[in-house]
Design goal:
It is a single chain. The protein is of the alpha/beta class. The protein has one domain (7-291): 3-Layer(aba) Sandwich (Rossmann fold), CATH 3.40.50.1820. It has 11 helices and 9 strands. Strand 7, helix 9 and strand 8 form a beta-alpha-beta unit. The N and C termini lie far apart (43 Å). The relative contact order is 0.14.
Length: 301
């Protein structure tokens, strides 16, 4: 059983599972998770966005509850085309997009292709820093993958990827692992990992520099997979961007600090995408956010 009801949208390579929430006539926002995660990543953010926007959170083809066809192209450019096909099927031409990890790589390519009015990138794969060393190591072991390997790899994925691992329950971890259980799940895992290359991201900076849309880059300062200097590099590449660094947090910001990250994204989208007056966000979060650019002489990078 999945954590919530998902629609099925047919695209050329299969069916994509999609979570929808909010008024279908409201401004759309698309939430894109990475290859080894799913729309479950957004479970806390979706209810915050739904009163204001039409929320669309697909599982990328091959991931979550979407189809994982043998031989399908799961690389970034193809996934970008897949997401565009889903949006066309839903009648959506212009939208805001929020992406995490590999989903943020797809978000960058969507923005370059057009139709994106606001862009939020969370611990994004970017430039020549992808595939990361951890992914390169995984790709070297794909001939030896079995169910035990997948389970162990997922445990380490979140153990290393979170600054506050205790905040992820066993049930949450189980939902992330669920699509990769059994023989079919192992095959799904291998297909996704095999598609992890840097195609589409190398030499992307000139294209990002031409984007005249508001952009928000959020990063965990302690991201063990994608170093925090990438946040500054993305901020420099995107002309209308702000950068927020969250100390004490790792790669999975929405698991480490949902009480801070969720309201921060909602407030930014309300003001920069919906053009609504700014209001005070929830102040109960335990994480301090540094918003802006690196000051001169700051050597933390």
């Amino acid at each position: 059983m999945t954590w919530t009801e998902k629609a099925r949208v047919r695209i050329p390579d299969g069916e994509v599972a999609v979570v929808e929430a909010g008024d279908p006539d409201a401004p759309p926002v698309v939430l894109l998770s990475g290859g080894f995660t799913s729309s479950y990543l957004w479970r806390g953010l979706i209810p915050l966005l739904a009163p204001w926007m039409h929320v669309i959170a697909p599982d990328l083809l091959g991931s979550g509850d979407s189809d994982s066809p043998e031989g399908a192209d799961l690389r970034l450019p193809a996934q970008t085309a897949n997401v565009r096909s889903v949006l066309e099927a839903l009648g959506i031409e212009r939208f805001a997009v929020v992406g995490h990890g590999r989903g943020a790589g797809v978000a960058q390519l969507l923005a370059i292709d057009g139709g994106v009015d606001a862009l939020v990138l969370i611990d994004a794969i970017a430039f020549d820093a992808w595939p990361s060393p951890r992914i390169l190591d995984l790709r070297s072991h794909l001939d030896d993958v079995d169910a035990a390997f997948v389970r162990s790899w997922f445990d380490a994925f979140f153990d290393v990827g979170m600054g506050h691992r205790e905040r992820l329950s066993d049930a949450d971890l189980g939902e992330y692992r669920r699509p990769f259980e059994g023989d079919d799940g192992v095959a799904r895992f291998v297909r996704i990992a095999s598609a992890f290359d840097g195609r589409g991201l190398v030499e992307i900076e000139p294209h990002l520099a031409r984007l005249e849309i508001p952009a928000f880059v959020l990063w965990g300062e302690d991201d063990a997979f994608l170093p925090a200097e990438l946040a500054e590099r993305l901020g420099d590449a995107l002309p209308w961007s702000s950068v927020a660094l969250l100390p004490g947090c790792g790669h999975f910001l929405l698991e480490d600090a949902p009480e801070t990250v969720g309201p921060l994204i909602v407030q930014w989208l309300r003001t920069r995408y919906l053009q609504l007056p700014q209001t005070h966000a929830h102040e109960g979060g335990a994480v301090t956010v540094e918003l802006g650019r690196r000051p001169p002489g700051d050597d933390r990078w």
